[in-house]
Sequence to fold (217 residues):
Amino acid sequence: MPYLASSLVSPSTIDKRGGVAYYNPITGGGSMLIDAGDGYGEPMNVIISGLSSPAVRTLDGAINFARAIGFSEECFGLHLGGYMSANLGDGNGWVNQTIELRQDYGNPAGGTCLESLIGGNHFRIYVQNGTAADSGALFLAVSREEPLSKNHDIVPDGYDIGRDQLVSAAIGRTRFNGVKYNTVAQNITGLLVPGAAGVNHGIALDGIVTLLTVTID
Fold:
């Protein structure tokens, strides 16, 4: 089951302090599905809010936070599989993923090699930073994949499962390399369309995107 905030809410991006959690990519002509090829897409189903601590939203900061919740860089720094692009409606058009991070099975130094072999959770990061919609939010395309022997296809219900596993690991207090994080989550409806239309592998979505606000203590 997905993490449940007090209620499911429609997208609301403007904070009372004047900051922006995210902009809806669709409003700016983008999509909540990344380009997986052949006219199909994979969902960006987690957003790290633009109201998160700025240090979390840098490349190094995002990697450190990922390590705090059980993910790390790819095995020996080698990317497996294709690069996928996303259009976040921010004026940058279709842009390749910034980085792909994989479940590290408790070993940030080499555990992602195990994930590459036996499968597990992984995600791609896209940054909403164009001049048309500069929220600084990180959009994550999260999914759980099969082992190498099954060509890293997505497991049944793997988009929703991957999202839920990442969120469960992230909420509350975590830490890595001396940095302490406090993460709260809120489920958002109205960004992704429920169902399997246009979704890679024909895997249906429940339509929920989880917004994470990550604060460095």
